[in-house]
Every structure is written in structure tokens, then in C-alpha cells.
Design goal:
alpha+beta
């Protein structure tokens, strides 16, 4: 059996990504922030574009040989007030591939990517409180319960990255709210 490999997905992976994401939505509809109807209605070209890595988003895939067996996304905002936070989203592993460590590899790949972004200090996620396998995975990867009550059966988890958040010297993409000057009247 070939070892599971994890890499960023590319636009050429769109067909496999769509099939696996739709399988996940069908199996666990409450775990995704979309519906099967909405996701299945997206043109393949739009899904391919979603897979193009940007400064704000990257989607990883776990492969068993050539077969895509798992997915996980990492998304961040460019808004200054929250640019130090990213969200882990859409983590799903096909049922036949579970129990072999693919989900952990996906989460670790996303966290390694997050650590390489100097501005990021925290990764957040939401998980159904009755999804014990996912909770065990996330807690085992170092996530902790975030402050605030659970809503709609979802728990908010967070992980502080292993270094303080710092804005990079060359980063001028973010809106600097604290430098906004308001003239006196």
C-alpha cells in the first residue's frame, strides 16, 4: 500500500476535489457551511479557480497513490483587525481511508503553512460537538476550546501558533486601521 502524501491542490485536481467534497457534504451536511445543491451547482471552472493558492487561501489534498482521499483548507482575511487569524475549514477524509492518519497529515500541513506566514498568530475552526473523531484529532493537534459558548451544536477551537504574530516589513497589503488620521473639526 503506498504511503499517504499531502500536497496543495491545483486547478487540475478540481474533478477529484468536487467529488470528495460532495461526498463529505452528503455524509455530514452539518459539518459544512454549504449545501449539496449549492456546491453541486458550481461550474467545474469555478471549483478549479478555488483550488488556485492565493495569499488568503490554500487547499491541501491527501492522496493514496493518485487517488484523492482527503481535503482541508486554510483561509485568512486581509482585514487588519483579523489578519493575524486563519480558519481551518472543510477537513474531510473518505470513509475507506479513515484511521490511517490522513486527517492528521492534512491538519499538520495546514498548520505548517500557517506558521510560514509571519502575520498569523492563531488558527481557528468550528467542529460539531458530537463529532468525537474530529474533536480528538483537533485536540491532539494542540487546539483548545475558544472562549464563548457553543452555538447550533458547534464548538469553536483555536490554536496559537508557536511564535508571536508579527507584521512583515514588506507586507503592505493590509489596511492599517490604527494609522487612520481623522482631522479635528
Amino acid at each position: 500500500m503506498p504511503a499517504t502524501t499531502v500536497r496543495p491542490l491545483m486547478p487540475d485536481d478540481a474533478s477529484g476535489y468536487r467529488a470528495l467534497r460532495l461526498a463529505g457534504i452528503a455524509e455530514l451536511p452539518a459539518a459544512f457551511c454549504t449545501t449539496y445543491a449549492a456546491e453541486s451547482g458550481l461550474p467545474l471552472a469555478r471549483i478549479a479557480e478555488r483550488l488556485r493558492a492565493t495569499p488568503c487561501q490554500i487547499i491541501f489534498g491527501a492522496f493514496d497513490g493518485e487517488q484523492l482521499i482527503g481535503i482541508a483548507g486554510l483561509r485568512r482575511e486581509l482585514i487588519a483587525v483579523v489578519h493575524d487569524k486563519a480558519s481551518l475549514w472543510g477537513v474531510y477524509v473518505a470513509p475507506q481511508a479513515r484511521g490511517r492518519g490522513a486527517a492528521r497529515q492534512l491538519v499538520q500541513a495546514a498548520l505548517a503553512h500557517a506558521c510560514a506566514i509571519p502575520e498569523l498568530g492563531r488558527v481557528r475552526l468550528a467542529v460539531a460537538q458530537d463529532n468525537h473523531a474530529a474533536l480528538t484529532l483537533y485536540l491532539g493537534c494542540g487546539f483548545t476550546l475558544a472562549d464563548g459558548p457553543a452555538s447550533d451544536g458547534m464548538l469553536q477551537l483555536q490554536l496559537s501558533l508557536p511564535r508571536p504574530a508579527r507584521a512583515s516589513a514588506e507586507s503592505n497589503v493590509f489596511m492599517k486601521i490604527n494609522t487612520l488620521q481623522i482631522p479635528a473639526k
